[in-house]
Amino acid sequence: MLPFPRNIGIALSGGVDSTTAAALLLEQGFAVQGFFMLLLPDSEKQVGKVQHIADRLGIPLHLIDLRAQFQQQIIASFVAAYCQGLTPNPCILCNQLIKFGLLFEAMASQGIEAMATGHYARVEGSKLYRGLDPKKDQSYFLCRLTAEQLSRLILPLGTWRKQDVFARAQAIGFSHFNEGGESQDVCFLAQQDLATFLVNQGLAARSGEIITEQGKVLGAHQGSWKYTVGQRRGLGLPDVTPWYVIGLDAINNQVIVGKNEELFRQELLLVDVQWQIEPPKQWQGRVQLRSRHQAAEAWVMPDEKHDCWKVCFAEPQRAVTPGQFAVFYEGEQVLGSGVIAIALDVT
Fold first, then answer.
1. 63 phi and psi, to 5 degrees?
2. So which residues are the catalytic ones?
């Protein structure tokens, strides 16, 4: 008996992961339909490639035009976050609102009851777990999915390693995939650097000061939105040891710099916290601060004074970045997440 309704809609991107995931579902007896999201102005350029894959798999392909919604809900919020001195993660928001939100709604309108993607993570019932391949685990990017969204989701690659996915793709006749040709996470930055993209979105150069945390002026810049916490390059501050961005003051258009040791923080505040369990009075586990951060032991507790949640790490963490997501793990399971608002102390 199949663990999901027989009709599955899969988000096809044209890459090896979604292609192999679709093939695995077909092997398991599912009736699979492909769905390709048009998200960017030039998305039509990819349609031929995705259609070719769908034809090879023998499944129908539906084109879902979400360009207007992607611009309004993802790109606009991305630009607004940089204006506020934050470093956002648009992929997490896109997964929550677009891919597993609007795309599934489009699937459901055509009779699809469950959806699949090529993400490297595991879903059991309505619970989310890390993928088996630690180098490719993408559970961090799925941290904002609700129990309802997870309950209708199947991730065929959750127990696979990347090299085995390439091998399976080769075995079933998709020999054109290049193991070194992975797409980058932020799809709309594929053809340009961040600063150029933001300028094209309307952000203008604005001169400001580069200062230390004590207020000493060390240099000048042309827009605090061009920087992020932990950044070293582009400061133009020669010294015996490197300077790093340790904070941003968007209101005063100031870039705050310090030495490497000043990048470490032991506590931070989170807003927009979302739990997969009943919100605890205090929780202890491992917290991951960005996609490539090694999750670290911490305590998470409500901070009623500031109407938010506080995270206290057992050991100081480097480059805590406002705007990024902190994800809570109990073992392999994702239990919740929140948006980093501020780092509290310097070691």
1. -100, 125
2. 94, 187
